[in-house]
Amino acid sequence: MAERMVELATRQPGFLGVESVRGADGFGITVSYWSSPEAISAWKAHAEHLAAQEMGKRAWYEHYALRVAKVERAYEKSTD
């Protein structure tokens, strides 16, 4: 389902990218990036995404947290 959500998100207006990681213990984090609050709201309201969220609440996740944040600056060091 995660792969399907990424595939679907990439086709949504305002999608900028996604990063995801999961540890051996099953703990994971996925961050998606969007161009505007409106794009975030549209993704949140997408019917297939809503169905996946509901399935996650009922079957896959005992606990989850959602954060909406604005990235003001981003830096990284390249190994090149």
Task: Please give a structural write-up.
The chain has 80 residues and is α+β, with helices and mostly antiparallel strands. It has a single domain, classed as Alpha-Beta Plaits. 40% of the residues lie in helices and 19% in strands. It has helices spanning 2-10, 37-45, 47-60; strands spanning 15-22, 28-34. The chain is globular, with a radius of gyration of 14 Å. 1% of the residues are buried. The model has no long low-confidence stretch (mean pLDDT 92).
Break the fold down into its secondary structure elements and pairings:
Blueprint: H1 2-10, E1 15-22, E2 28-34, H2 37-45, H3 47-60
Antiparallel strand pairs: 1-2
Please summarize what this structure is.
The chain is α+β, with helices and mostly antiparallel strands and 80 residues long. The chain is built from three helices and two strands; from the N terminus they run αββαα. A two-stranded antiparallel ribbon has the order 1-2.
